[in-house]
Amino acid sequence: MKIDIVSVFPEYFDVLNLSLLGKAQEHGLLSIDTHDLRDWTHDVHHSVDDTPIGGGAGMVMKPEVWSECLDSLLGVTYDASDARDVNDAKHAPSLADIESADDAEYALSAIDPAPGTTIIFPNPSAPLFTQDDAQELSQQKRLIFGCGRYEGYDARIPAYYSAQGYDFREYSIGDYVLNGGEVAVSAMVEAITRLLPGFMGNPDSIVEESYTGKQALLEYRQYTRPAQWRGRDVPDILRSGDHAKVDRFRRDEALVRTANIRPDLIEQLRVEDLDKVDRKL
Ligand code: SAM
């Protein structure tokens, strides 16, 4: 997998060279290139932002700087005569609706011009990034991340690249506002890359995890030695050596913890995925 990250603080991503991510890069499992957005500016101040149209506090990231940067990473050149109107694209016919040669040409041209590539901009007012998204994105060949700053970026950037047929996504990492997209991108990169085959020494460690699999539950609690610590004992059953009982104990814990902490996840479970004992809980 190839990852490009664009930010006005590219040095922020030095941490991605540490630990398992660093090793994965050394072993050629993935490459991460960071870029300074200011490299695509042309003025003496290297400005990437301007005042918001319509008024209001703060500054907004300019579309021209981002488009020069993204075009160069995608290896494309902007041709004004070729640009599709975003409003047209919204009404682009689906393959099922094709009635004329023009429809067919238009629908075909809407097909992703960079298959295997996804552009991702973190945004607090976007859908929440989940483990399922991480799983899906770990199958991609290339990810391009753009970090917002200030009041965010011009809304025409995602609209334009989506209309050009690119897989352009915006994600929030939680219901709070950060100063910039760098922390959000670091979190997403880590969540995605640890799912790459060969990333984890023990592949089983990513199978039984919170939010993972068909039945996305919170994980059961974990313990290690010593069995007694400061007056607190590890539950006897975990030391019994009876694997069936240990599995049942952990499953019960996962269900009860999920019901208490994330009832929304319990509501998504399908009754047919629950066994008899689950249903009694
Ligand atoms: N004015 C924006 C709003 O109220 O939604 C907040 C902009 S924030 C200060 C600047 C940048 O930080 C955003 O463009 C985004 O890239 C990033 N960011 C902040 N909070 C985030 C979150 N919860 N999830 C993802 N990205 C976030």
TrEMBL record:
GO MF entry, a single one: tRNA (guanine(37)-N1)-methyltransferase activity
Protein residues bound to S-adenosyl-L-methionine: 148, 173-178
Cited InterPro entries: Alpha/beta_knot_MTases, tRNA_m1G_MeTrfase_C_sf, tRNA_m1G_MeTrfase_TrmD, tRNA_m1G_MTases_N, tRNA_MeTrfase_TRMD/TRM10
Gene3D superfamilies the record matches: 3.40.1280.10, tRNA(m1g37)methyltransferase, domain 2 (1.10.1270.20)
Signal sequence coordinates: none
GO biological process: tRNA N1-guanine methylation
UniProtKB keywords: Cytoplasm, Methyltransferase, S-adenosyl-L-methionine, Transferase, tRNA processing
NCBIfam families, alphabetized: PRK00026.1 (NF000648)
Any Gene Ontology CC annotation: cytosol
Recorded family membership: Belongs to the RNA methyltransferase TrmD family.
Protein name, per record: tRNA (guanine-N(1)-)-methyltransferase
Domain tRNA methyltransferase TRMD/TRM10-type: 1-73, 102-268
Catalytic activity: guanosine(37) in tRNA + S-adenosyl-L-methionine = N(1)-methylguanosine(37) in tRNA + S-adenosyl-L-homocysteine + H(+)
Chief location: cytoplasm
The protein's assembly and partners: Homodimer.
Subcellular location: Cytoplasm
EC number assigned by the record: 2.1.1.228
Cross-referenced CDD domains: TrmD-like
Stated role: Specifically methylates guanosine-37 in various tRNAs.
